[in-house]
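Hi team,

As requested, here is the filled-out complex form for the beta-D-fructofuranose run. I kept the field names the same as last time so the parser does not choke. Let me know if anything looks off before we queue the next batch.

— J.
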Amino acid sequence: MQRFILLILLSLFLYNCRDNEAQLNVDYLSSKDTIYSEQFRPQFHFTPQAKWMNDPNGLVYNNDTYHLYYQYYPDSTVWGPMHWGHAESKDLLHWTHKPIALAPDSLGYIFSGSAVVDRNNTSGFGKDYKPPMVAIFTYHSMEGEKAGRSDFQTQGIAYSNDDGLTWKKYKGNPVIKNDSIRDFRDPKVFWHDASNKWILILVAGDHALFYNSDNLKDWSLVGDFGKQFGAHGGVWECPDLFKLNIDNTDEEKWVLLISINPGGPNGGSATQYFIGNFDGKTFTPDHLDVRWLDYGMDNYAGVTYNHTPKNERILIGWMSNWNYAQETPTEEWRSAMTLPRKLTLYKDGEEVRLRNYPINEFDNLVAEEVDFSTDLETTILLKTNPRLGSDITFRANLTKPLTVKLSNRSREDFVFAANPKTQLLTVDRANSGVVDFGKEFATKKQSQPYLPQDKMVEVRMIVDASSVEIFVEKGKYVFTNQVFPAETYSRLLISPADDESVENIEINLIKSVWIDEE
Ligand code: FRU
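And here is what came back:
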């Protein structure tokens, strides 16, 4: 009986909280019914204002500004003739949309690639003593592909003398040709101090190729990697290669990212990584096992920024999967980017592994902390306002089974669980909302092996209108997933929630980054 009365009191308390919450949130929101209040529109992830987007391209920092170019088709919400769309940001969280940067021409569509600031004007594209920005991308000739040729993907370059706003294509394009490899694309370029050269890595079907250059125009093939290494369940795409220090030491390792489609650990598109050494020509991996950046279904084609101010490695991925990317139930726009994530290396025994975790600046988006009852056996009311996201953090002992359920009043739910017996972390989005639009969106429980440790570890779940990003142990284990709930997930249930299993629950509501845009 006592328990019953307590429950009634608690419900009344939660009901009241909901009213207060609605009051509190009014300040952050404009009542305008704009594109950013569409159903499923992410409130703090990047989306194009309208139409189709896939991979991030040309991630580069220049003159206090982060540029995000991206695969874009301005005429439809499905994939088509590829352009580079463009947005700029000062903090990687608030974005300003810019005009299209690169459009198809007689050499083909503009596929994925990268961008650098050519500080010493090695390319000669500079003007008035100002270093040019140079973009390196793949040309995809539809005519060539339709004619059944094998030389339809080549590499081109373009330069900008106005800080990345407008671009001129180089007259000598293509700068790298090929006559026999059908999948020959996605160049990533960076400056390599040790060899005093520009290095370009691209993918060629089932392996990567390395080129070098003094001027970004003339490239020599110097090495290859991968036929015998890593996962090969699909085509290799979107490579990246960079050096990182191992946590708190001077020891450095090279990290190679390779996206692969299909063949991901839970189906469809995913990104694998290798740890090893690179001497300007050859990459030598330290391990034979296959390693994945993310075990969720929706983190693909992720690459990192060139020239970041503190020399940090910041990755943005495309938050979708080619299995169903073109069928997701959004109307005006399609696809979002992941949160920007810092990549770091840590030692796991003798092995070196990669973490990915939201940049610290994300914490600046907190609107308010949710006040909830400490009786954790009860569902916690997160929020009622669809324009706020939630950032849920707690510490858990994952040597015991744990289930975390997000749900809404429409009885939809998203479930994350840890099972120490099977040593698997799992995600189930079978009942997460609209799920029937595409192959394999909800057919399978996603799983990731983990090592249960007898101590409290951090679990963080960041929930936006159409995504849930989960980070365990600060990004050692990650699941990124799209979800399309009929209404915002407003409830959270962690079980069990006794002191021995879970502690330090903190729930923050996250502001929309698009309010100022309206
Ligand atoms: C990866 C990818 C790239 C290609 C681009 C085309 O998602 O297939 O390999 O450059 O998309 O839009």
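Two things worth flagging: The chain is about 5% helix and 45% strand. The pocket of beta-D-fructofuranose is lined by residues 54-55, 71, 82, 111-112, 138, 185-186, 237-238, 301 (CB under 6 Å).

Thanks,
J.
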